[in-house]
Amino acid sequence: MRLNRYIAQYTDLSRRKADALIQAGLVIVNRQVAHPGLNVTNKDTVLVDGKKVVPVQKIPSTVLLHKPVGYVCSKDGQGSPTVYELLPKGMQNLNIAGRLDKDSSGLVVLTDDGQLLQELTHPSNDKEKIYHVKLNKPLADGMIAKLAQGVDIADNRLSKLMVTPQDNDEYEVSIQEGRNRQIRRSFEAIGYKVKQLHRIQLGGYLLEGLAPKQYKQTD
Predict the structure, then answer these.
(1) pLDDT at 128 over 70
(2) Which regions of the chain does DSSP assign to beta strands (E)?
(3) Looking at domain 3-52, which CATH architecture does it have?
(4) In the chain, which segments carry CATH 3.10.290.10?
(5) pTM (predicted TM-score)
(6) Which one of 12, 101, 152, 155 is the catalytic residue?
(7) CATH topology of domain 62-217
C-alpha cells in the first residue's frame, strides 16, 4: 500500500496532508526518512511527526446531514459557515459524497468509506439524485420534454433532467450526474431561474426525518 494511503487509512490525516508531511521529511519508516511513493505493509513501523501509526482497521462511518442554505460543503468556508461546523469533532475527517452549493439545501452524505464514496460520486455508477426545485415561473409547454432531451449548458455534453410537476412553479428533478451547478445552469439555459433547490435523495439515502442542521449515522 502506498505510504500516503496507509497514513490516511489509519489516522485522521488526508492523503494530501500525508504527502505534505512526507515531503517535509516528517515521516519515518523503519527508522529511515520516507520518500514519496514508498510502499508499506502492516509489518513496517511508521512514525508521523514522531507518533507511531497503529494499523487498526477502522469501522467505516457514514453520516446523513440536512444542510441548510448558507452553508458550504467544504472545510474552508472562506468566511461562510461550513457543514463541518454542524458535526462533532470526531466526524471532521469524513468526506462529502456529492456536494451542494451554498444556496442549496437538503441531503448531504459524508463518509470515510472509500468504496461508498466511489459508488456515490463516480459518473459511471449512475446514482440517482432527486431534488425539489422551485422556479421563478411555471415551465411552458414543451419545456419538460426539452430538458429530458438535453440542453446546452456550455459543457462538453448536453445536460438531461427528468422533471415531474408538483405544484405551480415547483418540480421534482431527477439526475444521474453531478456536474457543477448542473440543475441551475440547465434551467437558466431555457430562460428560467431556480429560486430554491433542495435535495431529498442521493442513491439509496433519503433525507426524510431530518430537520435542518440535524444529522444521523447510518447503520
Answers:
(1) yes
(2) 27-29, 32-33, 46-48, 51-52, 62-67, 95-97, 105-111, 129-135, 162-167, 170-175, 194-202, 205-206, 215-217
(3) Roll (3.10)
(4) 3-52
(5) 0.74
(6) 101
(7) Pseudouridine synthase (3.30.2350)
